[in-house]
């Protein structure tokens, strides 16, 4: 009799818990309830005000979501990030941020940083639609946020418990409005789905994704501060779109050559995440998933490539485009005529890096969103499952960069007394903004002008600035200062 009563008691507890979960999620607004349409449906588009309104309502309704402004855009709009994690993690965001700063910057002096009871969390940043005509990801971000705020399955709970997601609905809010306004204006005309006849970043247009070592744009500085002064994400996922007739989705690992300053650990981890995405997508039956093609890991200045030099994994995905939010139909003949690209002679050829080619047909914004959502989940699942691995890699890479070696150079000097002081100041500001250490020399320093030549000395004047190579951003220092040979 006692055993039966206990079983009933357990059942009542389980039922009560499930009812509580349901009560917590039923009041969370769906994107459709706020927008009036489901994002990524054909011929719908949400502008920046609609997107931020939805995230604000999600923040108010869900204990898993916290939205913050990270700065103003070039045209004065509010740029936001949504932190998504378990309720307990959201309550302890400051603790986890401080802890991750500590393990990512062991060479700096910190006040005593408490170790979180459950250890650190894998910090994952997902950013959408820096190129605003690649519009679907910004719309998809609301679906991803809603799913993470409401799902109660075991895999989602593992993600929420072990990761903190920094979701950036767009890295270019100004452009979202430019594209949305143009799309609505031309809907139903012969110009429907075309690019707007103006730059979708006020100064840089498409080249806003060439700014991540120069810090010219307000949007770049906002996100750089969030990443490399505050949170130091272990994984950065930059979601893009490409042309209509190539692969349906191009992801890591990437084409050669890699930049020699990128850690081998980063390259391997990048490949591991890419194959996880590819495997999950192929398992769902998706065709046209291509790896090892088109894009390499050489260049320094892109959203997803800058993280490599900050001891982080940077992921680029490129989904085939529709006509903004208008579906298209791609005939096989168009795929046959496509010019070869690196790693892919034809999107129709079955190869190891394209084991299930896409043969053409209808291609819709919802198809793009479905792929991007699957890829995002794959990254988050890996980040949760192997949390200790990503935290250990962050520690190891930072410590390795601090270890002295016998390879020159040891430091780079910005001499005092140069003309154009404003340019020198701006140069140093760019370095420090992205988290690099720059030290002021308070005394003159006499050094050998040539290696191993003790009879030829010169002076470095006081007031000069010195950038040491052995700092946690060692790959960043060397990649920016040294000559590179492609």
CA distance, first residue to last residue: 78 Å
Overall pLDDT level: 92
Rounded to the nearest angstrom, the radius of gyration is 25 Å
In the sheet with the most strands, the strands line up as 1-2-4-3-5-10-6-8
Number of strands: 17
General form: globular
The oligomeric state of the chains shown is: single chain
Task: Kindly estimate the percentage of residues that lie in beta strands according to DSSP.
Answer: 15-25%
Q: How is this structure best described in words?
A:
- The protein has 486 residues and is an alpha/beta fold.
- It is 40% helix and 16% strand.
- The protein contains 15 helices and 17 strands.
- It has helices spanning 2-26, 31-35, 48-61, 87-91, 93-104, 136-150, 154-162, 173-186, 218-231, 264-283, 332-336, 365-385, 387-402, 421-433, 474-481, and strands at residues 65-72, 78-84, 122-128, 163-168, 235-242, 249-250, 255-258, 289-290, 296-297, 313-320, 328-330, 361-363, 411-414, 439-440, 445-448, 457-460, 465-468.
- The strands form five sheets. Strands 1-2-4-3-5-10-6-8 form an eight-stranded mixed beta sheet. The chain has a three-stranded antiparallel beta sheet with strand order 13-17-14.
- A hairpin with an 8-residue loop joins strand 15 (445-448) and strand 16 (457-460).
- The longest helix is centred in the first third of the chain and has 25 residues, at 2-26.
- The radius of gyration is 25 Å and the shape is globular.
- Mean pLDDT is 92; it is low at 1-23.
């Amino acid at each position: 009799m006692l055993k039966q009563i206990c079983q009933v008691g357990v059942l009542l507890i389980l039922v009560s818990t499930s009812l509580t979960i349901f009560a917590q999620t039923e009041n969370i607004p769906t994107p459709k309830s706020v927008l009036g349409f489901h994002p990524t449906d054909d011929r719908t588009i949400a502008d920046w005000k609609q997107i931020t309104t939805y995230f604000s309502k999600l923040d108010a309704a869900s204990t898993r979501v916290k939205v913050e402004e990270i700065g103003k855009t070039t045209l004065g709009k509010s740029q936001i990030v949504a932190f998504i994690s378990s309720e307990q993690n959201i309550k302890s965001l400051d603790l986890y941020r401080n802890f991750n700063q500590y393990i990512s910057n062991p060479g700096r002096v910190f006040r005593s940083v408490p170790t979180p009871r459950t250890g650190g969390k894998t910090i994952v940043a997902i950013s959408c639609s820096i190129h605003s005509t690649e519009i679907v990801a910004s719309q998809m971000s609301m679906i991803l946020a809603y799913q993470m705020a409401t799902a109660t399955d075991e895999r989602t709970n593992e993600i929420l418990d072990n990761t903190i997601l920094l979701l950036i609905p767009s890295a270019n809010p100004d452009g979202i409005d430019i594209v949305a306004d143009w799309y609505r204006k031309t809907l139903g005309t012969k110009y429907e789905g075309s690019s707007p006849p103006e730059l979708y970043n006020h100064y840089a247009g498409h080249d806003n994704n060439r700014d991540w070592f120069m810090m010219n744009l307000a949007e770049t500085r906002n996100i750089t501060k969030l990443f490399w002064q505050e949170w130091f994400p272990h994984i950065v996922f930059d979601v893009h779109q490409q042309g209509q007739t190539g692969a349906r989705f191009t992801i890591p690992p990437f084409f050669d050559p890699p930049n020699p300053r990128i850690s081998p650990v980063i390259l391997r981890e990048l490949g591991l995440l890419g194959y996880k995405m590819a495997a999950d997508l192929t398992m769902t039956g998706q065709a046209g998933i291509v790896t090892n093609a088109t894009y390499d890991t050489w260049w320094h200045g892109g959203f997803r490539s800058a993280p490599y030099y900050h001891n982080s994994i940077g992921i680029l995905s490129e989904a085939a485009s529709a006509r903004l939010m208008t579906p298209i139909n791609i005939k096989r003949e168009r795929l046959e005529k496509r010019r070869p690209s690196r790693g892919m002679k034809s999107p129709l050829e079955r190869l190891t890096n394209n084991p299930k080619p896409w043969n053409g047909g209808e291609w819709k914004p919802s198809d793009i969103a479905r792929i991007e959502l699957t890829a995002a989940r794959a990254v988050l699942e890996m980040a949760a499952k192997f949390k200790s691995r990503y935290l250990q890699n962050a520690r190891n890479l930072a410590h390795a960069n601090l270890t002295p070696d016998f390879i020159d150079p040891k430091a780079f000097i910005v001499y005092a007394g140069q003309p154009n002081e404003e340019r020198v100041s701006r140069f140093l500001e760019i370095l420090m903004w992205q988290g690099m250490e720059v030290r002021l020399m308070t005394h003159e320093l006499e050094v050998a002008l040539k290696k191993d030549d003790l009879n030829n000395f010169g002076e470095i004047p006081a007031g000069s600035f010195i950038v040491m190579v052995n700092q946690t951003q060692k790959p960043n220092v060397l990649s920016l200062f040294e000559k590179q040979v492609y």
